[in-house]
Amino acid sequence: MGERFYPDRFLKQVMPKSFYTQGLVSKNFSLQKGAISAMNRARLATGRPIDKTVYDVLLQYKAKYKDLIAAEDFGKAQAFEAAVGGENLLRQRIEQAVVFDKIQDLKAKHKGEFYRWMPSSAENPDPQHGLLYGKIFRVGEGDKEGNMPGERYGCQCGIEWLGEEEVLMYSSQEKAFLGHISQNITIKTDALYENAIKHNFQNNNLTVNFGKLPSKTVRKIEKQTGESLKGFVFKMDGESVFHALSGHGEYKEIESGQVVIDKKRLRLIPHIVWKFDRVSLENKKNGMRRLKFQKKIGHHFTEIVTIGKKKKHLLFKTFYGKQ
Ligand SMILES: [Zn+2]
Q: Which single residue of 19, 60, 219, 318 has CA 20 to 30 Å from 301?
């Protein structure tokens, strides 16, 4: 289990008690010295400008005060009390700014790693965020707007830091298997990876040929599916690789138990066709035929390829793994 961060627990740790007991607003609608020093202490990083939303609240208080004075319903002292109320809004804004800054620091510290979205401690949690509980993201990614827990106003969702190791978790079998993959295959799949990262869907027309299926593989496929693939080659194209990476890989939320497809794991793809445990034939409605290869290398990997009879090729479609 990774280290966790919860906005409410963090605030309890860092905000001085006086922040909740003393007044925060001075008579001229600026922040009291005590409030500023509490903020700076909590924010750790000195020299960061105070969040604009905090000043917006002060302006809001001031406008309300002026209205009350203009309406002549209140004396100055009364109007001030009524305008700032319990200072709750200001406290919330300051807390939010403190949490936001802390998350920016943590993002820098955990750059390139993964985290799990943890449930909110709010009384009325956002149902949209509720859908993200337990899911794994790369640091810097998160909800639809790209917010991580605690970044959006009012969000009290938590973070469990997972590091890179913990999510990628190469099993010992997988490490051994990867160690035996030829340089020739590595160069080709790495090129597909770089291409997918660079082009996404635009002009992504790289196709790589991995050569003829070994005769042993051809015999094994025929035995298990009845498909005769003598002389067939195996190919992968950039767009399918991008799909595999974006659906199950480094760009998107990861369901629990799902394996992250990264650059190294792409190298398994040709080898799984060569040395699968099981294969089955899938007939699609449009007459297309596909093979589903399965292999256990620590995790349970599944790979789908399309059979192209005319061109005598197997074309890579997608790839995923489960723990
Ligand atoms: Zn939230």
A: 219
CB contact at 8 A, 50 and 14: no
What is the reported pTM? Answer: 0.64
Distance 133 CA to ligand 1 centre (A): 9
**CA of 246 relative to ligand 1 center, distance in Å:** 24
DSSP 10-54: HHHHHS-THHHHS--B-TTSSB-HHHHHHHHHHH-STTPPPPHHH
User: What local confidence, expressed as pLDDT, does residue 134 receive?
Assistant: 81
pLDDT of residue 252: 55
Report d(CA 90, CA 195) in Å as an integer: 49
Expressed in angstroms and rounded, the spacing between residue 93 Cα and the centre of ligand 1 is 16
Report CA(155)–ligand 1 centroid distance (Å): 4
Domain ranges of the chain: 6-108, 110-166, 169-322
CA–centroid distance, 120 to ligand 1, in Å, is 6
Q: Which residues does the chain have with pLDDT short of 50?
A: 46
| DSSP H or E run through 184 | helix 183-199
**How many angstroms does the Cα of residue 132 sit away from the middle of ligand 1?**
9
